[in-house]
Write a structure and sequence with these properties.
three-stranded parallel beta sheet; alpha/beta; 3 strands; about 20% strand
Length: about 90
């Protein structure tokens, strides 16, 4: 399996449920995580839990059903982590 270390990964619905389970696993792989969900409070809770595991996550409130919000989300992730290289 290829290393996931330092890869930027966006998880929608990342504050709870399956998204959060995936986030915890990716933290162990030393990924750079971006989590989005509709609730800032739930995102902040998830962020603190991931910090307890030794990881960090960029959080962003976003309803992925709204294209304008998704455009802003992608822009902010690129601003935070930088543009991915091929």
């Amino acid at each position: 399996m290829r290393s996931m270390k330092d890869k930027v990964i966006l998880i929608t619905g990342g504050s709870k449920g399956l998204g959060f389970v995936i986030a915890k696993q990716l933290i162990k792989e030393q990924c750079k995580l971006a989590l989005c969900a509709r609730s800032l409070k739930e995102l902040q809770i998830a962020q603190k839990e991931l910090e307890k595991l030794g990881g960090k996550a960029f959080i962003h409130v976003c309803d992925v059903a709204d294209k304008d919000q998704v455009d802003i989300l992608v822009h902010d992730i690129i601003q935070h982590f930088g543009r991915a290289r091929s």
